[in-house]
Fold this sequence. Notes:
Layout: H1 12-27, H2 33-58, H3 67-76, H4 79-105, H5 112-129, H6 131-144, E1 155-161, H7 167-174, E2 192-197, E3 203-208, H8 222-233, E4 237-243, H9 252-265, E5 270-275, E6 286-287, H10 296-310, E7 327-330, E8 333-336, H11 337-340
Amino acid sequence: MYFDDIPTVPTADELIDRVLRRAAKKMREKTNKRRADEDFVRSITQASHDKLVAIIQSFPNFEELPPFYRDLCDILFGMDNLKMNLGMVGWAAKNVRDVGRFISTGMRRADTLVERRRAVARIASIIHRADDALHYLNDVRNVLRKLPHVNPDEFTIVVAGYPNVGKSSFIRLVSSAEPEIASYPFTTKGIIVGHRIAERRRKIQFIDTPGLLDREGEERNAIEKQALNALVYVADIVLFVIDASENCGYSIEAQFKLREEIEEITSVPMVTVVNKADVKKYEGFFNMSTVSGEGVEDVLNELLRIRKENMIKEVVDIRSELPVPEMRRHGGRTKSKKDAY
């Protein structure tokens, strides 16, 4: 995954403490006091600069991420805000290097103890100015590492609909995902990914999205925007779930209006299914109940049928799976062992 290797981002105090302890250890090994002070300043300068640069480099280049993850990061954090905080850490790295080099260069002509203390104070002050950015980036890191892995190469079924219509319950029945199930809306706070093994051990990827509401794009919150992001970028099929009983708290008319909106923004097949059929059915669509299990298998089979129709047929050359006969040279031409006798 793109975010698994991002290490914990230290605070300004943690970073300074580590750098000073490492430099002090090296200083104790020196016998020349004047040279030791100079080396101490060079050491904290280089270590501080390198650590700040390493923090920036530990984050991926967000512009090179797949569109799904790039837009997801923009929804969650705001790309401008992310870049501004990474830029602040970069500013601190540059200034630490410049100040440290300037002070260490003049130390041979001054009181080294005074200059050493000045260098520590100046460098610490610069790093502390980036403390808010360091805290922010660590919060971002903690969120990014928890994002589910969405594989763009796997066939993906995105489940959408109003809150509390039974999307998570369906995902739980047909895949490996274990979303939280509750009787109140917006239980799902972000996308949840599950898998199911199909023929020839190919994986099908199911994505459980947060509930959507029928309202203008600018009025939608970050949770809803995550659902739209999955629909636009990774869906091969959309399964739209409707609650005809209206126990979800939303009218059947509003649910169908949202269905029409999603049809307009996606270009992939859509299957509409009515859940809670044990309470109320709706003619003309697949009906199921994730409570009793009625109709769930029929819906799954329909999704698998559409998947099979839309998959690019894989050409398998069975000759590649046959054993290659051992060959040897004989009389200027190549023969198999069988031909040689």
